[in-house]
Amino acid sequence: MLRNENKKMLTIDETRKCYDCCPREKQFIDNAREEISIEDVDKFYRFLQGEVPEELTLKRPLKLSSRQAFLVIYYLQEVFGILPDNYERCKTCGDLFDSDYAVGKKDHCYNHDYLD
């Protein structure tokens, strides 16, 4: 928790000033993004489609289509820069994959690299 010299919690304005002048801006997001695995993103992707992890209890979970769920992930990648942008959705089966390790086309997962 961020505190000032009087050991009081910093206000939003005080933290914003610190963030604005910090030479390592977005360091927290950058560090977090490096630690987010494809498995983590896949779990979130499936959550958006209605698969609720055991540690959560929801009365009405989301039930997005795989396309809609990936649009949420895409937004978090491209607009907010929170999720790594090398995680893609296979156009053949809809599964997520890491495009940095794709052999063939960059829009197909490992199982479908042979497709033209």
Topology:
Elements: H1 12-21, H2 27-34, H3 38-48, H4 66-78, E1 87-89, E2 96-98
Antiparallel strand pairs: 1-2
Helix pairs in contact: 3-4
The outline comes out as globular
* Strand segment count: 2
Tell me the count of domains: 1
Average pLDDT, all residues: 76
Helix content: 25-40%
Task: Describe the 3D structure.
The protein is mainly alpha-helical and 116 residues long. The protein has one domain (26-112). 36% of the residues lie in helices and 5% in strands. Helix 3 (38-48) packs across helix 4 (66-78). The model has no long low-confidence stretch (mean pLDDT 76).
What can be said about this structure in brief?
By secondary structure, the protein is mainly α.
Key descriptive features of the protein:
single chain, 116 residues, mainly alpha, two-stranded antiparallel sheet, 4 helices, 2 strands
